[in-house]
Amino acid sequence: MDDIKIAFRDIDDTSYENIFGRFAEEIVRCHAAIHNKSGLGNEYLGWLEKPRDYDRDEFNRISVAAQKVRDDSDVFLIIGIGGSYLGARAAIEALSNNFYNQVNPVQIYFIGHNMSSSYISDLLELIKDKRVSVNVISKSGTTTEPALAFRLVKQMMEEKYGEDASKRIYVTTDEKRGALKALADLQGYECFVIPDDIGGRYSVLTPVGLLPIAVAGIDINELMRGAGEGMTEYASTDYINNECYKYVVCRNLQYRLGKKVEVLVNYEPNMAFFGQWWEQLYGESEGKDGKGLFPTSANFTTDLHSLGQFIQEGSPILFETVIDIIEPRIGLAIPQIPDAKDGLDYLEGEEIQYVNRTAMEGTIEAHNRGKVSNIIISIPRMNEYYMGKLIFLFEKACGVSGYMLGVNPFNQPGVEEYKTSMFKLLGKPGF
Ligand code: PA5
């Protein structure tokens, strides 16, 4: 198998053809709504063709800026929250050494995704003697968490570099609007654009994700190539064989059967942040009008020793979507040690990945017996190409799923509620 494939391990053992039959008309309708741009929130469908239509000049500027950062910095600070940070972090962690900050020439730290004075202070202390560059990312340019962090980081950069600070600060924001854009123009920071027609959680394949990912030494050409293949392949009107729509159909079947929670499971610890990116994508897109699956993620086999009991025998509210990466980034065989007395002789010479994937197989079987259905997304190996394709698969499946659910998958009105309450309490003018 040399592609991303979806399989369904339904507890009822129904064939996919049968399941698809129940959703065929809806898939055709939602596919048309996305591609004709006639559905709710259609002004935010820019991500759909971006892997083909991206701005090549800006893409080249990103590569040049990334190389400059790699040449003149020990630390790259990424300031952003939600869609302005999760995608970059997900891709960097998934495609890097598990301990990338200990082994890579440029250390990457994330800030502006919380309001913890301890976190901010610890980080600024950690990097104070290093050569630092900064990427502040905010579409609105007004979000409190990154704005607060940037105020402190800017002060640190100006104390450290004086006027030259502006040559080390990169801004990713709206093309024309917002406080951050105005500040960038005033200070002469290099700017990259978050397109108007792409919302935060769909923006990883724009400069929002691409600059941080490129600084991490990851091949963004390959990432976009994978996304581009996904764009073509998942536009196929051979609906029943469209892998993206297979995922849509299977998860919506679970929703209609009364499941409330979808758990995105991985068996590779560096996919943990990918789970967080996916949580935001699905949570903000579908969780509205009293509808939607609650998206959460789990890291197996680690979490089998904490959440496994609930999944097996607890409230029957969930199903699992398993990311199965077939070939590990690095293989490792279990050594033959005479008289080791650790009970592992029967596995001697086997690959650890064989044990990991057998654990996956056993877990799926066990959870099926516990009435938990599994959608399995198999990926030949995790590299830039498959990461780009997987991102696109999940983005498109999310848009189509949202339409199937009858919600606008591209807005997030509920997110504003906490901000309004917070601003009132803080006494922000106008609230
Ligand atoms: O998906 C979204 O729209 C949000 O998560 C935003 O990305 C997040 O709130 C950050 O917003 P901004 O980029 O405007 O700072």
Report on the structure:
This protein is of the alpha/beta class and 431 residues long. It has helices spanning 16-35, 50-53, 56-72, 86-95, 100-103, 117-127, 144-161, 179-187, 207-215, 220-233, 243-256, 272-286, 308-313, 352-369, 384-405, 415-426; strands spanning 5-9, 75-79, 107-111, 132-138, 169-173, 190-193, 261-266, 294-299, 318-327, 374-381. A 5-stranded mixed sheet has the order 1-10-9-7-8, sandwiched between helices. A 5-stranded parallel sheet has the order 3-2-4-5-6, sandwiched between helices. The chain is globular and about 65 Å long. The model has no long low-confidence stretch (mean pLDDT 97). 5-phosphoarabinonic acid is lined by residues 81-84, 138-140, 143, 146, 199-201, 284, 412.
Keywords:
single chain; 431 residues; alpha/beta; five-stranded mixed β-sheet; five-stranded parallel β-sheet; 16 helices; 10 strands; globular; binds 5-phosphoarabinonic acid
Strand order of the largest sheet: 1-10-9-7-8
Give the low-confidence spans. Answer: none
Radius of gyration: 23 Å
Q: Helix count, per DSSP?
A: 16
Q: From N to C, what is the helix and strand string?
A: EHHHEHHEHEHEHEHHHEHEHEHEHH
> Helicity level, as a percent range?
40-55%
Mean pLDDT: 97
